[in-house]
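Changelog-adjacent note: as of this version, every example in the card shows the full chain rather than a window. The one below runs 420 residues end to end.
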Amino acid sequence: MCFVSQDLVLSLAILVLVLLLGTPSSGAFGGAENDVKSAVFLSPKIELRPGSVANKDYYDIDFPRGHVAIKSFNAEVVDEAENPVPLHETYLHHWLVARYYQPKHVTSHTGYDGHRIHHKSDHISVRNSGICQEDTLGQYFGLGSETRGTATYIPHPFGIEIGNPDEIPDGYEEKWMVNIHAIDTRGAEDKMGCTECWCDLYNVTMDEYGEPLKPGYKGGLHCCYDYTRCKLREGFEGPKRSIYLRYTVKWVDWDSSIVPVKIYFLDVTDTLKISDDSKGPSLNHNCKLEYEVDSCSTGNMNGNGCIDVKRSTVAMQSGGYVIYGGGHQHSGGIALTLYGQDGRVICSSIPSYGNGTEAGNEEDYIVGMSTCYPQPGSVKIIDGEIVTLESNYSSSRAHTGVMGIFYLFVAEELPQQQHF
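Full-length structure tokens:
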């Protein structure tokens, strides 16, 4: 379906509103934060050559230890000299950080080993609060190309509680892993096509597990897995490069004044499916992560104002007060908006695009997503509320492997001094 340009005007109006209202207030509770600690870490080295793909899992990464409250997590790709690498050279498809418990007697393992953690029965995955299930979107933190320009700070007195000794099983210790998916597009015949993982550019007909691709599958994660390579311009040669994910974590020691937040990830491809087990029928969320956007007009591919709209509806079993919200989209994205059951806007996240060549301002790439910081107590999701996630993409040309993922930090209660 095509929409006229007034939809774009509306999107710009929403962006202005978000910029005016979406900045965190350090004095929201009458005092500045004290004793915030900060540390900068590097992931293990990843080697890439032009056109190659790395999709690596690293375990037992450097991370704050003890009973603390995480306040922010920021990351970017850097080279061996720790200079930022621009997206038009190495595209950061995504990074994500997940939590797990490991038996104390098990030797720590930091190297890449496929999906090892999912094969170890003695490891316990510690997922976020929902809504997707199984191995999908269970992380605590994660962004993509927008990582340099997206705020992640959680305002005082809220924080993400980790390292609580009362929650860690006896004989186990808390660990963290990172997944990094990067695509080297130096010399690529079609840089944007490589970042969207078009299968023909990767000459791929089978997925990473050796299974044939489903009929009609044009592109996405199943075509740009680890060790695949995107098509280069004829005759192009370039050197191998080493990159790292440099990540900065801020935290405070846990005390009774901190209000914990729950983390929710919502996926616009989410559909409910009925499964039957020994306990009887149950409803499960089937989050597919990615989808395709068809061109709205094969005869007019440039700037005709067409917008693809995709929606999903889910019930939030447990609600609370929204403290922070934001979205993740790929190039072509226009907006992600979460609506309440009564039609109110809970949060709208708008992508910003670069207009230069330097890292953080790469032309035609999403370099940031706006975030929501409502006055604590002003936006509440009630228990069982049905919410609708809407993802808008430009359909002036076709896109593959796009995403519409929304994340919320929700507090079940407010500080005692807060009144509404």
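Structural remarks: DSSP finds three helices and 26 strands in the chain.
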